[in-house]
Amino acid sequence: MKKNGFGYLFLLNTVILFSTYEVVSKIIIDRISPFQINFLRFFLGGLFLFLFSLIKRDYKVEKKHLKMLAVLGVINVVLSMNLLQLSLSMENAKAALVAVIFSSNPIFVTLFSSVIEKEKIHTYKKAGLILGLTGVMVMSINELSIDAVNILSPVLALFSAVLYGLYTVFGRKVSKDIGSLKMNSYSFLIGSILLLPFLLLFKIPAFHINPSITGHIIYLSVLTTGVGYLTYFIGLSIVGASKGSMVFFLKPVLASIFAVIILKESVGIYFLLGTFLVVLGVTVIFYWEDFMGWIKTAKDR
Fold first, then answer.
1. What pLDDT digit, counting tens, does each position of 108-162 carry?
2. Which one of 47, 231, 248, 256 has the largest count of C-beta atoms within 10 Å of its C-beta?
């Protein structure tokens, strides 16, 4: 745990920033297209990170990496994030249900890690995974009225979660080769540029926005996307993809807390029970090895 301490701090920063995305987006959603938000946050976030690469004079990327960076941009920016936005835009879509399904992406990260990176899935990780998934399901139990849900919405959210899981595993591999800063800046910029034809096709403005939401867009682009993704992959490179991705189980908890504080939304008993299960699951994953080591040391004494 001690050697991974900085990794957990980076991941904690990420989950806090990611948890504000829905709240900030909800504030401005009636003044901007969700697809324009998606384009701007990755384009501006990519420029922000690329600026740091220029300052560090470490911006060169070999041709062999460009192809993979383009693939990452397509998987994350063009496909995963747009599918997530589409799932939320469906008629009768339930935001809590969509959030729950997307927050299940650690399951797919774990599966892809075991197949692609041959990362071993310990029993305690499986237990923590189940506890975390159960927790996010319990938190949204009031939203799971199937007769009121457009079935296409959760299906799109599921595909988004699968793709994000794949992006996380491949992104971590590329990040190890060229660094998290360059990996994120190039994949964001390439992905957002490839998204432009989609905006033009549906006559969605790329850069023209209501001046009243300029600050919100800068926050979503620079902090939530730029800094958030950067610290996410730095953390993953330290603690591992399957373990580090578990921060997403905390996202519904923190997002709900921010919604209560900022949007004055209410929570009930299911939220409290779900929060307990999520925290328990994450605790098992992060601290089980330390706990067992403490027991072994105590026995040896």
1. 777 787 777 666 667 777 787 788 778 767 766 655 554 445 567 778 888 888 8
2. 248
Measured from the Cβ of residue 31, the count of other Cβ atoms closer than 10 Å reads 11
Q: Which residues does 62 contact at the CB level (< 8 Å), separation at least 6?
A: 178
Report how many domains make up the chain: 1
Provide the token pair at 145: 């009225």
User: CB–CB of 80/219 below 8 Å?
Assistant: no
- The pTM assigned to this predicted structure is 0.75
Q: Residue 171: give the domain boundaries.
A: 5-300
Distance of CA 110 to the CA centre of its chain: 15
- Tell me the C-alpha distance between 68 and 140, whole Å: 36
Give ∠ CA 118-108-235 in degrees, rounded to 5: 75
Query: Using CA atoms, how far apart are residues 66 and 43, in angstroms rounded to an integer?
Result: 17
Across 231-260, average pLDDT: 72
Burial (CB count <10 Å: 0-12, 13-18, 19+), residue 98: buried
Q: Around Cβ 53, how many Cβ atoms within 10 Å?
A: 18
Helices (H), 240-268: 241-244, 251-262
